[in-house]
């Protein structure tokens, strides 16, 4: 294992750290924009980097189908292929085990998928998942796991957790150790405390560069997610990064950081940007709403993104109503900047021992809601 994680400080359970990879450093707590098929939709890599993002997420299942891992390797790896010279983490395909349930069969050996693109059949074993991520030149490889939905019967949760542990061992054996690259295990067990702790103990015994909490953000209430974090995180090694997969809203991120999570990914800021939902200090706004059509203010007056520095809400509203592609581009860019600003604020607050004050201000502003233009 060859990723170096520095725990620089703590404020309560909240942690400030730094993860060193072959393609650069990741300051934690960190949010990873999602580039499932080798692109953050609608944005150039330099725009994503300018938002403050230090690491992107790609997806093993989607990239193995198109353009193919071997092709990406021949073309110099995913960093060169997509023009992103910073760290990349790749999701192993475990989420697709759940989300594409009608197109797959699963057994001890691995998963057999029917491609959602053309119906062709593909095998994804723990060993092949690791091999694909190696071919992609991913800095952080994720073990193949079985992610199940919520709610889940206790027997099904235990079966999937135990299978994921056996697959974790096979992934560890298949992983090629090299400087600046690492492998993360994934804790499963649905919302059951005993299963989660058994999973964490089993993964720790195998030994990984970091530990992810999987099987959340699958339909459970936020309070349930936070409860699972509360009893799972203490079971994980304190000297390794902790990654909460697929989460979430800005509210989710702040609350999970207070529990001790170091890394996040989610499609929300980019997907919402394409559907006219903007994240701001005062909550979520819908840029299609007529209330914005004469508003000369930026999306968020305190934001440093290019969209807020140049264009008005009225213009962005016009772009969405006219179905011009620049509208989703500008709002996606803004949302990424906002997410990165929240993470940077959390890092600074942890460093000075003020994370509770930061969180209190954050929740107070969010609760106030958006101010109409005549009151600003």
TrEMBL record:
Record keywords, A-Z: Glycosyltransferase, Metal-binding, Queuosine biosynthesis, Transferase, tRNA processing, Zinc
Reactions that this protein is recorded to catalyse: 7-aminomethyl-7-carbaguanine + guanosine(34) in tRNA = 7-aminomethyl-7-carbaguanosine(34) in tRNA + guanine
Binding site for Zn(2+): 303, 305, 308, 334
InterPro entries: ArchSynthase1/Queuine_TRR, TGT, TGT-like_sf, tRNA_ribo_trans-like
Active-site positions on this chain: 91, 265
UniProt record similarity statement: Belongs to the queuine tRNA-ribosyltransferase family.
First and last residue of the signal peptide: none
UniProt xrefs under Gene3D superfamilies: Queuine tRNA-ribosyltransferase-like
Name of the protein in question: Queuine tRNA-ribosyltransferase
The protein's Enzyme Commission number: 2.4.2.29
Top EC category: transferase
Residues that coordinate or bind substrate: 91-95, 145, 188, 215
Cofactor remark: Binds 1 zinc ion per subunit.
Region (RNA binding) location: 246-252, 270-274
NCBIfam families in the record: Q_tRNA_tgt, tgt_general
């Amino acid at each position: 294992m060859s990723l170096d994680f520095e725990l620089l400080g703590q404020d309560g359970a909240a942690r400030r750290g730094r993860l060193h990879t072959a393609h650069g450093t990741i300051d934690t707590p960190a949010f990873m924009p999602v580039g499932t098929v080798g692109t953050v939709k609608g944005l150039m890599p330099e725009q994503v980097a300018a938002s403050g993002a230090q690491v992107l997420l790609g997806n093993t299942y989607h990239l193995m189908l198109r353009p193919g891992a071997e092709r990406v390797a021949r073309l110099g790896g995913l960093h060169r292929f997509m023009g992103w010279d910073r760290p990349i983490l790749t999701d192993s395909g475990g989420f697709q085990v759940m989300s594409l349930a009608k197109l797959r069969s699963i057994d001890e050996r691995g998963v057999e998928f029917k491609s959602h693109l053309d119906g062709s059949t593909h095998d994804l074993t723990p060993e092949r998942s690791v091999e694909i991520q190696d071919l992609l030149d991913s800095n952080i490889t994720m073990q193949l796991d079985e992610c199940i939905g919520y709610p889940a019967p206790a027997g099904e949760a235990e079966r999937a957790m135990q299978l994921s542990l056996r697959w974790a061992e096979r992934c560890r054996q298949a992983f090629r150790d090299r400087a600046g690259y690492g492998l993360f295990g994934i804790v499963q067990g649905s919302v059951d405390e005993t299963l989660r702790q058994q999973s964490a103990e089993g993964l720790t015994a195998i030994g990984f560069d970091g530990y992810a909490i999987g099987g959340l953000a699958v339909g459970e209430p936020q309070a349930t997610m936070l409860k699972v974090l509360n009893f799972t995180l203490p079971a994980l090694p304190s000297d390794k990064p902790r990654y909460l997969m697929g989460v979430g809203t800005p509210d989710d991120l702040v609350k999970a950081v207070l529990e001790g999570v170091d890394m996040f990914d989610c499609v929300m800021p980019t997907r919402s940007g394409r559907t006219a939902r903007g994240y701001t200090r005062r909550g979520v706004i819908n840029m299609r709403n007529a209330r914005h059509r004469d508003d000369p203010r930026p999306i968020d007056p305190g934001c440093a993104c290019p969209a807020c520095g140049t264009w008005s809400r009225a213009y962005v509203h016009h772009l969405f109503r006219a179905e011009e592609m620049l509208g989703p581009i500008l709002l996606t860019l803004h949302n990424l900047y906002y997410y990165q600003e929240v993470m940077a604020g959390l890092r600074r607050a942890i460093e000075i021992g003020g994370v509770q004050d930061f969180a209190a201000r954050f929740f107070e502003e969010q609760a106030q809601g958006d101010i109409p233009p005549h009151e600003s």
